[in-house]
Specification:
The protein is an alpha/beta fold. The chain has a domain of 245 residues: 2-Layer Sandwich (Nucleotidyltransferase, domain 5). The chain is 37% helix and 21% strand. The strands form seven sheets. Strands 1, 2, 3, 5, 13, 14 and 15 form a seven-stranded mixed β-sheet that branches. It has a seven-stranded mixed β-sheet with strand order 18-19-17-16-22-23-24. The chain has a two-stranded antiparallel sheet with strand order 4-7. Helix 14 packs across helix 15. The protein is globular. The chain starts with a strand and ends with a helix. One of its GO terms (biological process) is xylulose catabolic process. Its EC number is 2.7.1.17. It catalyses: D-xylulose + ATP = D-xylulose 5-phosphate + ADP + H(+). Keywords: ATP-binding, Carbohydrate metabolism, Kinase, Nucleotide-binding, Transferase, Xylose metabolism. This is Xylulose kinase.
């Protein structure tokens, strides 16, 4: 009998990634497909759920062609995906409109109204209402697209749309449900009062499962279409950050990591719900039973580096990083007068909860160089994560050291800068760019009773210790960075006025 293979599918914002994992935890194959985002108005961010399914079909075709033996042994599928998106289905399970994504800011007024009218709910749902979460989006739809709102029979999170196409079942799991603002985090059940506040009912919610539970098997017709064996089990899976945590082995209290992708987040696993909604901290259910996590999120992470690369005329991010490393070597602390960067290109979540604030370069001079501006971008994201880390630890969560995952983890320079700014040991990991799809594959195995991989992590690639020689200069610059937020916030308010 051939050993089982688990297929991990991670539906990210910019691409869908897949891996084939064997029962020893080794990656046997991988494939990815890019996904386009539509921005029909300023502050809007949408994707077509059909594009997700098409990307899934394409990625699986690549796996089948490249690793036919392993593909034929797939016994289970785990799902991971971008959180907080709203996929609206009618009674026929047809998609009503494009999905509104996590980084869409249109529901700012609705989020503020929920926070004003139902302040006590935040302690139950684990978070303040924010424009990026799912619940305010539905209030916006009710006001601005009433016909679409009236047609809603079910609301799914993005990765759960893939589950529907695979299994025919409308199911979500605790971690993605937690990101909707409709879940009672402690009880791990839907919170009817918040649903009612959004004009929604329990009947419009999918069934709930834990991330390591079986949620159905692949439909026979879909298995034939995709060339999958019969009876493949689909696990609950989870949102991208909690499933990344499973992928790297962050499953016990105090396990912490920074995800440095399009957005960025600092996450600490907890064994009970620990929240500070007023500080912009999310307390969400983990993808595993009996676990939660405290998270501080910033809306623009490595995407700031991508933006700066284009603005500064560099061919790619690696070229800009090389310029920074050559111009600002680590053995020389950065001058206090060097440019500062506020990384609020898409607004900010933790701790400011302001989706409309925008970023800025400051302290520019005739002697400012592209290397200095590139450095300022890396440092600005690190400073935003320091803000988020302070908010997370205010809950009682602990961050003894941090694993670093996501595209930004490829830069050793950035990893060392994060260690210096946060005063915390940073560890980069082998295969960390696949952490969400690896975690999804692990949850797939768990759903068929093979749980041995849940407690394993990824091999450490490098360890970065804080450099005390840089702490004084960085603390001074961080203080200046902190003082600038009210000014850029006031600029937006003036433009609105």
């Amino acid at each position: 009998m051939h050993p089982a293979i688990s297929l991990g599918i991670d539906l990210g914002t910019s691409e869908l990634k897949t891996v084939l994992m064997d029962s020893a935890g080794s990656v046997r194959g991988q494939a990815s497909v890019r996904i386009a985002t539509s921005r029909p108005q300023a502050g809007w961010s949408e994707q077509s759920p059909q594009d997700w399914w098409d990307a899934c079909i394409q990625a699986l075709a690549q796996l089948r062609a490249g690793w036919p033996h392993e593909y034929a042994q797939i016994a289970c599928i785990g799902l991971s995906g971008q959180m907080h998106g709203a996929v609206l289905l009618d009674l026929d399970e047809a998609v009503i409109r494009p999905a509104i994504l996590w980084n869409d800011a249109r529901a700012e007024a609705e989020a503020a109204a929920l926070a004003r009218d139902y302040p006590a709910y935040a302690d139950v749902t684990g978070s303040l209402p924010m424009a990026g979460l799912t619940a305010p989006k539905l209030l916006w739809l009710q006001a601005h697209e009433p016909a679409a709102f009236a047609a809603i029979a079910c609301v799914l999170s993005p990765k759960d749309y893939l589950r529907l196409r695979l299994t025919g079942n409308k199911v979500t799991e605790m971690s993605d449900a937690a990101g909707t603002l409709w879940l009672d985090e402690a009880k791990r059940s839907w919170f009817a009062p918040m649903l009612a506040a959004c004009g929604m009912t329990l009947a419009q919610m999918p069934a709930l499962a834990e991330g390591d539970a079986a949620t159905g098997t692949v439909l026979a017709a879909i298995a034939d279409q995709l060339g999958l064996p019969a009876g493949v089990v689909v696990a609950g899976g989870g949102g991208d950050n909690p499933v990344s945590a499973v992928g790297i082995g962050a499953v016990n209290g105090g396990d912490s990591f920074i995800s440095l992708g399009t957005s960025a987040a600092i996450v600490s696993v907890t064994e009970a719900p620990l929240g500070n909604p007023a500080g912009g901290v999310h307390s969400f259910c983990h993808a595993l039973p009996g676990r939660w996590y405290a998270m501080g999120a910033i809306l623009s992470g490595a995407s700031c580096l991508r933006w700066a690369t284009g603005v500064l005329g560099q061919p790619d991010e690696a070229a800009l990083l090389a310029l920074v490393e050559a111009g600002l070597p680590f053995d020389v602390p950065v001058a206090p007068s060097a440019p500062l960067f506020l990384p609020y290109l898409s607004g900010e979540r933790t701790p400011h909860n302001d989706p409309q604030v925008r970023g800025a370069f400051l302290q520019l001079g005739h002697d400012s160089t592209p290397a200095q501006l590139g450095y300022a971008v890396l440092e600005g994201v690190a400073f935003a994560l320091r803000d988020a880390m302070a908010a997370v630890t205010s809950t009682g969560a602990v961050v003894p050291h941090c694993m670093l995952v996501g595209g930004g983890a490829r830069s050793q320079y950035w990893a060392q800068l994060l260690a210096n700014v946060l005063g915390c040991e940073m560890r980069t990991l082998h295969n960390s760019e696949l952490s969400a799809s690896l975690g999804a594959a692990k949850l797939g195995f768990a759903a068929i009773g093979q749980r041995q991989l849940l407690s394993t992590g990824l091999p450490i690639k490098n360890t970065f210790l804080p450099d005390a020689a840089h702490s004084a200069a960085l603390s001074l610059r961080y203080g200046r960075y902190r003082s600038l937020f009210p000014a850029v916030q006031a600029l937006h308010q003036l433009s609105e006025g």
